[in-house]
Amino acid sequence: MINQLQEKYQLSLLLLLGSVAMFGILPFVAIRYAEGNTSAVIIDIMLILGIVALVGYAYYSKRIRLISAVTALFINVGVVIVVIANGFESFFWVYPVFASTFILIKPIEALCLNIIAGVSLIVLSDIFNTVSLASYVITITMLSMSTFVYASHSAKQFRLLETLNTVDPLTGAFNRRAMNTDIQAALANAERNGTQPLLAILDLDYFKKVNDQYGHGVGDQVLKDFVAITTSHIRNYDRLYRFGGEEFVLLIPGISDDQHTSFIENLRTAIKKELTTPDGKGITVSFGVTPWQPKATIDTWLQRADEALYQAKEQGRDCAVFSNKER
């Protein structure tokens, strides 16, 4: 899946940070302007504009991971500059900035960035003529480590949630929710960039007989074995989804026309050779395959593949039928 859930979550955090930057720093612009501290006003305005610009770019470009990393670096560099320029008046901004870093990038990355920024403050600023260095080191260490533990736990929980949201619990293949998202993205990419994705529906032949003869426990194991065999014979960026029962959908992006037949036939042969019942009887698979056609939708693309699968069944199963019919 293309991590849309994670991207939306990260974007919401960026938007929150942008709002905090706007309403949190802006009052200090007015205060420092009234005090005649022009350099501080300029720095604060640059920080606000920089953060807002990065958040806006992330919103429109959808390059969430990259912009989050740039934003984390920007605010850490910014807080070091502000403390050097303003001294004790801006020192306490270090704490929210260091904590915010952990919501923007991976915990270990945030921890490293905090260490670099923290040491930079010690080396470059004279603030510790006023602030106890020992207190600073202890409090910043406690903050960073506590936030690191929390962020690591949250990242683990998020990965678990994403797995539950996108993976079929029995077979380990992706589920229909992930399939709809990925197919829609593949169609959009094909229309935009002219790529040639391939879609196939795979159906295990006479699977009901396996359940009837050996029991549903064996049937479930056969499905798991099928997924393991199939994923071992496709590329890392190809995706296998459980469509329902013993039917699966295979999405194959970026494959040239002259490779369609050989790719599918090699896969079908590998499954036929390796997938067996407990007593060694081979299990075959029928394929309904269709390349992308301009103006295709999820429904029409799947329908073409399903019609090709029906033809494969009519032709005696254990074969692949390709459909080039446009709709």
TrEMBL record:
Recorded catalytic activity of this chain's protein: 2 GTP = 3',3'-c-di-GMP + 2 diphosphate
Any GO MF annotation of the entry: diguanylate cyclase activity
Swiss-Prot/TrEMBL keywords: Membrane, Nucleotidyltransferase, Transferase, Transmembrane, Transmembrane helix
Transmembrane ranges?
12-34, 40-59, 66-85, 97-124, 131-151
Q: Which InterPro entries match?
A: Diguanylate_Cyclase (IPR050469), GGDEF_dom (IPR000160), Nucleotide_cyclase (IPR029787), Rev_trsase/Diguanyl_cyclase (IPR043128)
Positions of the GGDEF domain = 195-325
**What are the EC numbers?**
2.7.7.65
Pfam families linked to this entry = GGDEF
The family database entries (NCBIfam families) matched by this protein are listed as:
GGDEF
Q: What is this protein called?
A: diguanylate cyclase
